[in-house]
C-alpha cells in the first residue's frame, strides 16, 4: 500500500504523523477529533495550517523537510467563507482508495448559504488523489461558468492546494514553456490544459479559494462524502445526488 501522511488538527496530539497506529492513538475516542490522510508530505504540510515546516510525528521519525519557497495559497477559515460576497459557493473534493486506486469526485453547491445540489462521479478504478481533486475542481468551474452567465457571484472552495496552484499559478508558466516543466513530466496535462483555458475566461470574475479538509466546514465535508459515494457506486459520469439533501444523514456516511 502506498505511503500516507496523517494530519491531526484536533486530538490528544496534533501535527503530521507518518503511520496510522501513531495517528490512531491521538484520535481514538477523542471527542471532536479532526484528521485526514494525504498521499504526500507536501500536501500534509500544506493542510496543516500552511506552515513552512512541521514535525512528522512517529517513533523515530525525522523532522519534515521545509517546503520550497515561492507562491502559496491562503487558507480560508469557515468564518471568512461565511463573509464572502458570493450568491453561489461550490465546494469540491476528490478521493482515492488507496492512492493510486479507486478514485471519485464530489461537490456541494450552495445558493445564498443554503445547500442546493450535491454531485458525484468520475469514477476511475486506477486513478490518483490529485486527478480526482482536479476533476472535482473542473466540474465546479463548468458549473461556475453557468452561474456567472446569470450575473451571479461565485466562489469555489477546494481543499487541494495542488489543484488550485496548477490552474491559478503554475499553468501559465508551463504554457509559456510549451507545456513543459524543468522537473519533468506534467501529470494530468490534458485535464490541466482544459481547465486553464476555462480559467482564463473566468479568472476576472471567479474566486477559487482553499479551505482545509475535515475541519468541520459543512460544504467540504459533504463534497468529501460525495467523492466516496462515487467510489462506492463506481459512477463514471458526473451526476446529481438524487436522494434527499438530509445533511446529518449525508455527513453520517463514511468519510474519505
UniProtKB/TrEMBL annotation:
GO BP terms, alphabetized: DNA replication, removal of RNA primer
Enzyme Commission designation: 3.1.26.4
Leader peptide range in chain numbering: none
Source domain of life: Bacteria
Keyword Metal-binding found: yes
PROSITE patterns, per database record: RNASE_H_1 (PS50879)
Matching Pfam families: Cauli_VI, RNase_H
GO MF assignments: magnesium ion binding; nucleic acid binding; RNA-DNA hybrid ribonuclease activity
InterPro entries: Ribosomal_bL9/RNase_H1_N (IPR009027), RNase_H (IPR050092), RNase_H1_euk (IPR017067), RNase_H1_N (IPR011320), RNase_H1_N_sf (IPR037056), RNaseH-like_sf (IPR012337), RNaseH_domain (IPR002156), RNaseH_sf (IPR036397)
CDD domains xref list: RNase_HI_prokaryote_like
Catalytic activity from the UniProt record: Endonucleolytic cleavage to 5'-phosphomonoester
UniProt entry keywords in alphabetical sequence: Endonuclease, Hydrolase, Magnesium, Metal-binding, Nuclease
Keyword NAD belongs to the record: no
Co-factor requirement: Mg(2+)
RNase H type-1 domain segment(s): 84-232
Positions in coiled-coil regions: none
Family in the record: Belongs to the RNase H family.
Purpose of the protein: Endonuclease that specifically degrades the RNA of RNA-DNA hybrids.
Quaternary organization: Monomer.
Protein name: Ribonuclease H
Organism of derivation: Agarivorans albus MKT 106
Taxonomic placement: Bacteria, Pseudomonadati, Pseudomonadota, Gammaproteobacteria, Alteromonadales
Amino acid at each position: 500500500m502506498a505511503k500516507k501522511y496523517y494530519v491531526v488538527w484536533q486530538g490528544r496530539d496534533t501535527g503530521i504523523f507518518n503511520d496510522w497506529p501513531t495517528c490512531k492513538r491521538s484520535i481514538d475516542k477523542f471527542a471532536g477529533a479532526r484528521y485526514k490522510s494525504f498521499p504526500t508530505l507536501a500536501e500534509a504540510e500544506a493542510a496543516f495550517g500552511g506552515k513552512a515546516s512541521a514535525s512528522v510525528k512517529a517513533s523515530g521519525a525525522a523532522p519534515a523537510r521545509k517546503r520550497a519557497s515561492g507562491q502559496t495559497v491562503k487558507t480560508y477559515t469557515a468564518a471568512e467563507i461565511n463573509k464572502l460576497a458570493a450568491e453561489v459557493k461550490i465546494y469540491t473534493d476528490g478521493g482515492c482508495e488507496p492512492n493510486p486506486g479507486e478514485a471519485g469526485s464530489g461537490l456541494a453547491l450552495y445558493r445564498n448559504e443554503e445547500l442546493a445540489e450535491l454531485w458525484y462521479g468520475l469514477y476511475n478504478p486506477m486513478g490518483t488523489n490529485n486527478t480526482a481533486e482536479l476533476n472535482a475542481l473542473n466540474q465546479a468551474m463548468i458549473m461556475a461558468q453557468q452561474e456567472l452567465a446569470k450575473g451571479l457571484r461565485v466562489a469555489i472552495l477546494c481543499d487541494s492546494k495542488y489543484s488550485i496552484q496548477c490552474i491559478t499559478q503554475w499553468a501559465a508558466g508551463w504554457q509559456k514553456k510549451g507545456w513543459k516543466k524543468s522537473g519533468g513530466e506534467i501529470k494530468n496535462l490534458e485535464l490541466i490544459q482544459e481547465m486553464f483555458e476555462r480559467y482564463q475566461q473566468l479568472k476576472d470574475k471567479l474566486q477559487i479559494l482553499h479551505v482545509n479538509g475535515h475541519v468541520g466546514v459543512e460544504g467540504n465535508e459533504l463534497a468529501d462524502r460525495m467523492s466516496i459515494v462515487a467510489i462506492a457506486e463506481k459512477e463514471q459520469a458526473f451526476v446529481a445526488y438524487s436522494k434527499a439533501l438530509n445533511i446529518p444523514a449525508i455527513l453520517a456516511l463514511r468519510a474519505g
